[in-house]
Design brief:
Elements: H1 7-22, E1 27-37, E2 49-62, E3 72-87, E4 95-110, E5 116-131, E6 140-154, E7 157-170, E8 178-190, E9 195-208, H2 211-216, E10 224-237, E11 242-255, E12 260-262, E13 265-267, E14 277-288, E15 293-305, E16 311-312, E17 317-318, E18 321-334, E19 341-355, E20 362-374
Antiparallel strand pairs: 1-2, 1-20, 2-3, 3-4, 4-5, 5-6, 6-7, 7-8, 8-9, 9-10, 10-11, 11-14, 12-13, 14-15, 15-18, 16-17, 18-19, 19-20
Length: 375
């Protein structure tokens, strides 16, 4: 299992020194994890692999004022995010990501005892992801920016949303580079019966913006794809120790995902959620057991249709439809009994994907453990 170079820790140390000197008030989180995947690539001839993961977030806030009744507060936040993973079984899936960002936010307190918080915000981040071995060709740099708002319309109705843009550049695969404007609106309603209802609508456009894309995917102009998605979610508290939650997701393709077909070649850009439409349904129950251990049991089912895109088979190219089932159990416990401090989470599950194309049909288990610390 390959461990990444020490430059990750050197970068973290430098940022710690800078933040301390600049503000003297650092908040963040550290996550150390390990896990196992039967099908890390999502195909039926995968080599199972274990992995290690690390994630660090650091931020310092400039200009914030002490909380007070009906206070309007504006501040800037400087932040760093670092993620790394190392995979076994010579899968070459390990990767490392660094991101530096700045955010501005303005909050105001309203309602009885000023318990509700409205806010507007804006921010941006520059990041870079690096892979190891075979997958180094997928290294990329990314710029991300957003505008957001959060507004209580009434004491029991919350309206929020964001508009964002992502620009990603692949150095060795310029045809994969893209520009992605996207946004979301969400409404939540809270009831005295411990019920929360939520509805969100998301719209996104991905445009491959390097001239190589039109050549590789054989399109008359720069290829693009777009999608609309909606989510309905519900949470119901049944007691101080037991709750239920669920959601239904639907996605609709507005313009097809680009792909290329010639003789026995079937190719497309890197697949993501834009590549398929369909629906997913998820339900879970959460229970606070002995020793302050939170247990959650959940299940999901989804139908994913990849539209007119053709995938290679032994005979020719075929359109693809997947049915995905997932069952999981997670256990979580705070080791300090406080919001800040160490927390341990264990999870295990089983995933079954049934596709009309044999390559994408598989069933296997996954497991993970995670120790997180907010400070």
């Amino acid at each position: 299992m390959k461990i990444f170079p020490a430059r990750l820790m050197m970068t973290i140390a430098a940022l710690l020194v800078f933040s301390t000197a600049a503000a003297g008030d650092i908040k963040g989180s550290l996550i150390l994890g390990t896990g196992y995947l039967d099908n890390p690539l999502g195909i039926n001839n995968d080599t199972s692999a274990s992995y290690l993961s690390q994630a660090l977030r650091l931020s310092t806030t400039l200009g914030a004022q002490p909380a007070s009744d009906r206070m309007i507060n504006s501040a800037f936040k400087l932040g760093y995010e670092g993620n790394a993973s190392q995979f076994g079984s010579d899968t070459s899936l390990g990767n490392m990501r660094h991101g530096l960002g700045v955010e501005w936010f303005r909050t105001s307190r309203t309602g009885a005892q000023n318990r509700r918080t409205n806010s507007i915000g804006a921010g941006g981040q520059m990041s870079q992801r690096s892979y190891e071995g075979y997958y180094q060709v997928y290294d990329y740099s990314e710029a991300y920016g957003y505008l957001s708002f959060r507004k209580y319309m009434t004491a029991k109705s919350l309206f929020s949303g964001f508009a964002a843009v992502r620009a990603r550049r692949y150095g060795e695969l310029p045809e994969e580079s893209f520009f992605e404007p996207h946004g979301q609106l969400k409404m939540q309603r809270f009831f005295a019966s411990r019920t929360t209802l939520g509805l969100s609508v998301r719209l996104g456009l991905k445009k491959y913006n390097d001239s190589a894309a039109a050549v590789i995917w054989d399109t008359p102009s720069l290829p693009s794809t777009s999608q609309m998605a909606a989510r309905l979610n519900i949470a119901q508290g049944l007691s101080d120790r037991f709750s239920l939650r669920g959601r239904v997701d639907s996605r609709w393709t507005l313009s097809d995902f680009p792909y290329y077909v010639a003789d026995d070649i079937y190719d497309s850009p890197l697949l993501d959620t834009y590549a398929h439409e369909g629906w997913d349904i998820f339900v879970a129950m959460k229970w606070l057991g002995p020793a302050q251990v939170w247990a959650e049991l959940g299940a999901s089912r989804g139908e994913h249709d990849y539209g007119s895109m053709l995938f290679a088979t032994a005979a020719s190219g075929e359109m693809r439809d997947d049915t995905v089932n997932d069952l999981y159990l997670s256990l979580e416990r705070s080791l300090s009994g406080k919001a800040l401090g160490p927390k341990l989470q264990l999870a295990s599950g089983w995933r079954d994907q049934d596709s009309n194309i044999d390559t994408y049909s598989f069933a296997g288990i996954y497991a993970s453990s995670r120790l997180s610390w907010r400070f």
